[in-house]
Design goal:
heterodimer; A: 429 residues; alpha/beta; Aconitase, domain 3; 2 domains; 32% helix; B: 164 residues; seven-stranded mixed beta sheet; 7 helices
Chain lengths: 429, 164
């Protein structure tokens, strides 16, 4: 009768564990990026630790401020590069390789794994059937030293989504809709398991969008049970991935909930009539249909982030922008080098550039307000990222969150626009 | 950890997020005192100027939502905050706070700015000395009390020494 989370936690702790139990679990993969590894490495040293527990299970991508924006950042970057070298960590990804969650998903995450990241959006890995969760920098140092971490096994919420998403309505709209209904703290301390035809039909990219924003409801993990789409995605990785088993389809320790698993809540949604959704300032659960905010003046459009910076997202935007010109500054940040390469090869980058967009190097871009498109006082951004908190992209800025389709339509209109009215004939893959 | 504290209240509403507590531009330092200078800078500019050692934050549900930034509890500790009370906390903020020695209490307390609360951690009791209202809260499991007492860094240091 265990849930997916109870099974993964039990396996990792080496003992049968149920929701509410405290466990000490073995970590399968640990990730820290340039923003959090600095504190983690400092704490690691202060703990008196010498060598990391397993250099092959540690992943360090630089994504938050890349390339470096100033001298102090450069020095911090250099210190981490040196530490990574001393520790023999091979899975280091320097500037331009991509966003940490994209890299871990493309190369390391597997169904049934317990993955911790020193970043709150580590719940993204649930798109591949893993238990991914965010932790702090100091406890990441403990993981680096020991390979173990304590958890309270979470209760789980079972969410079923049915209905075919309408044209120009995508995973992001569904995700924002769920957040609006469940609330910013509606899943705090809990794991979410997703089921239903709509979820089955989502690409891995769409599932990543969905699972990525689990933390915006407070969730500890958000998990889609692995299926053929998951195995296809993992199988395509070839030999780049670490880990012991081959990519032959065997040896995945896929984990599924028992039919009589106990959930703390069960929710049902039908998205067959869902209009495009927008989260308005300054809370992610301030969600409204696009027509409620249509016409809102916009100064900048941002397409990218670990939520919506994948090929599918860039392609959806390019299909709308094809042959047209944006009339507000439009900043695009691909989620990884491989996403950017795919977009170059498919002509998506050419379409975006011709339409007047600016292409940033792969990374977090302006999402966290550190560089590459910080908002000025009173400026308004429509962003495909995951947070619209006050001051996040610049002290006096206002952030609306939406899908890549709504972002592209908005870029053409210069005000929040409904992508179904701008372009109606293209369906996402 | 002190068993009993008394402090002045800073009242906040629900869903106080990490970007409000400490904006990302200050991620370049881990220093508590430095971070404290910018705590709540965008949303409550008087906080950093007027907060004093021993103060308490009382907030609505889901305090500390958003980023995993440990800089947030560090900034609060640096500002002299001794305890944060809220009906619920975002889980990463909760872990980070315990790990660096900032006590959190899960409790729905009615208190206004400037009220003085008395908190008894051992007995799990809170009294608002201005209204005389009393509240109870469940105590932490022993291993978390130990963690709160010595901090994760020292705790791990001792463990590493034992295991060689």
């Amino acid at each position: 009768m265990p849930t997916i989370s109870e099974k993964i936690m039990s396996r990792a702790a080496g003992a049968d564990a149920r929701a509410g139990d405290f466990v000490l679990a073995d970590i399968d993969c640990a990730m820290a990026h340039d923003g959090t590894s600095v504190l983690a490495v400092k704490a690691f040293t202060e703990m008196g630790a010498d060598r990391v527990w397993d250099p092959d299970r540690i992943v360090i991508p630089f994504d938050h401020i890349v390339p470096s924006n100033k001298e102090t950042t450069s020095v911090l970057h250099r210190k981490i590069r040196e530490w990574v070298g001393r520790q023999g960590i091979k899975n280091f990804f320097d500037i331009g390789d991509g966003i940490c969650h994209q890299i871990v998903s493309e190369r390391f995450a597997r169904p049934g794994m317990l993955i911790v990241g020193a970043d709150s959006h580590s719940c993204t890995y649930g798109a591949l059937g893993a238990f991914g969760t965010g932790i702090g920098a100091t406890e990441m140092a403990e993981v680096f030293a020991s390979g173990k971490l304590w958890f309270r096994v979470p209760q789980s919420i079972r969410i079923t989504v049915d209905g075919a998403l309408p044209d120009m309505v995508s995973a992001k709209d569904m995700t924002l809709h769920l957040i609006g209904k469940i609330g910013a703290g509606g899943a705090t301390y809990k794991a979410i398991e997703y089921y239903g035809k709509t979820i089955d039909d989502l690409s891995i990219s769409g599932r990543m969008t969905l699972c990525n924003m689990g933390v915006e409801m407070g969730a500890k993990a958000s998990i889609v049970p692995p299926d053929d789409a998951t195995f296809d995605f993992i199988g395509r990785r070839g030999s780049e991935r670490n880990g012991e088993s081959k990519d032959d389809g065997d040896g995945y320790s896929s984990v599924y909930a028992d039919p009589d698993a106990v959930y703390s809540g069960e929710l049902f949604f039908d998205v067959s009539d869902l209009p495009p959704q927008v989260a308005t300032p300054h809370a992610v659960d301030n969600v409204q249909p696009v027509d409620e905010v249509e016409g809102t003046h916009i100064d900048q459009v941002f397409i990218g982030s670990c939520t919506n910076g994948r090929f599918e997202d860039l392609k959806a935007a390019a299909d709308i922008l094809d042959g047209k010109k944006v009339c507000v500054r439009t900043v695009v940040a691909p989620a990884s080098r491989s996403v950017l390469l795919q977009a170059v090869r498919a002509g998506v980058v050419e379409t975006l550039l011709s339409a007047g967009a600016v292409i940033l190097p792969p990374g977090c871009g302006p999402c966290l307000g550190a560089h590459q498109g910080v908002l000025g006082e009173g400026e308004v951004c429509l962003s495909t990222a995951n947070r619209n908190f006050k001051g996040r992209m610049g002290t006096g800025g206002f952030i609306y969150l939406a899908s890549p389709e709504t972002a592209a339509a908005t870029a053409l209109a210069g005000e929040i626009a409904d992508p179904r009215e701008i372009f109606t004939s293209v369906k996402r893959p | 950890m002190e068993k009993y504290i008394k402090g002045r209240v800073w009242r906040f509403s629900e869903n106080v997020d990490i970007d409000q507590i400490i904006p990302a531009i200050y991620l370049v330092t881990g220093d508590r005192q430095e971070l404290a200078k910018h705590a709540f800078e965008n949303v409550r500019p008087d906080f950093a100027k007027e907060v004093s050692d021993g103060d308490i934050i009382v907030a609505g549900p889901n305090f500390g939502s958003g980023s995993s930034r440990e800089h947030a509890p560090r900034a609060l500790l640096g500002a002299g905050i001794r305890c944060v009370i809220a009906p619920s906390f975002a889980r990463i903020f909760y872990r980070n706070s315990i790990n660096i020695g900032l006590p959190l209490v899960e409790c729905d307390v009615d208190a206004a700015d400037g009220d003085v609360l008395a908190i008894d951690f051992a007995d799990g009791k809170i009294v608002n000395t201005n209204t005389s209202a009393g509240y109870t809260f469940p105590s932490l499991p022993d291993f978390l009390v130990d963690l709160l007492d010595v901090g994760l860094i020292e705790n791990t240091k001792r463990k590493l020494k034992r295991t060689g």
